[in-house]
């Protein structure tokens, strides 16, 4: 079987997800946030439910909330009200295997569902702000992965859209893979939580548990 080329050398540009891909948050912070959100909503969240929502294990978080009988709008209002940017940043750590991004000698973009008021303090805390030539925090206006619009917007900012450049998007969820393929670029799925915990296998052009495997 032919071996795939090293993606660090095969692509003209890189796009990356943030949470669960480059960084993660200490469990104690996540658990405390969901405890406070549960108080606001009058509903307790089990550890498994917290895991599913925080890591997007079942794909669309809104669909999962609806399946549990929770109004997504009410949930996100409570969730964003309980997240403290500085505390979250302090509880965030950088995955060691993500360090290769700093050495990429091609345009690099960030495409994340993490909101801007949280993303900027996190990038500063883990000192990776200068890794990216452009950044996009998804909103209702930009669209959400797996919609290709936010990916294509970042590609346009990098000057690599629809002009023959070969690119890749690396992320930890099925939505990242879908967004990459919908935008016509390759996808790397980095499985941080494990197939058993996720309950399924996410396909991608590359499937790794650590970027070191590349």
Automatic annotation (TrEMBL):
PANTHER family noted in UniProt: PHOSPHOGLYCOLATE PHOSPHATASE
UniProt entry keywords in alphabetical sequence: Kinase, Transferase
Biological process according to GO: DNA repair
This protein's record includes keyword DNA-binding: no
Entry protein name: 3-phosphoglycerate kinase
Signal sequence extent: none
Organism: Natrarchaeobaculum aegyptiacum
Manganese listed as a keyword: no
SUPFAM superfamilies assigned: HAD-like
Pfam families: HAD_2 (PF13419)
GO molecular function, one term: kinase activity
Gene3D superfamilies assigned: HAD superfamily/HAD-like (3.40.50.1000)
InterPro entries: HAD-like_hydrolase_sf (IPR050155), HAD-like_sf (IPR036412), HAD_2 (IPR041492), HAD_sf (IPR023214)
């Amino acid at each position: 079987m032919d071996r795939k080329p090293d993606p660090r050398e095969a692509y003209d540009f890189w796009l990356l997800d943030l949470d669960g891909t480059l960084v993660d948050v200490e469990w104690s912070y996540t658990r405390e946030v969901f405890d406070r959100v549960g108080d606001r909503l009058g509903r307790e969240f089990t550890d498994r439910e917290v895991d599913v929502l925080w890591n997007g294990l079942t794909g669309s978080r809104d669909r999962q909330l609806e399946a549990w009988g929770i109004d997504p709008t009410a949930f996100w209002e409570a969730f964003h009200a309980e997240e403290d940017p500085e505390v979250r940043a302090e509880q965030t750590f950088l995955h060691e295997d993500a360090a290769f991004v700093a050495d990429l000698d091609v345009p690099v973009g960030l495409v994340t569902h993490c909101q801007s008021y949280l993303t900027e303090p996190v990038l500063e805390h883990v000192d990776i702000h200068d890794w990216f030539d452009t950044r996009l925090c998804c909103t209702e206006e930009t669209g959400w992965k797996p919609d290709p619009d936010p990916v294509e917007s970042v590609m346009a900012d990098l000057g690599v859209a629809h002009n023959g450049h070969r690119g890749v998007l690396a992320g930890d969820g099925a939505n990242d893979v879908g967004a990459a393929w919908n935008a016509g670029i390759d996808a790397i799925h980095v499985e941080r939580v494990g197939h058993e915990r996720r309950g399924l296998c996410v396909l991608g052009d590359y499937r790794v548990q650590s970027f070191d495997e590349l």
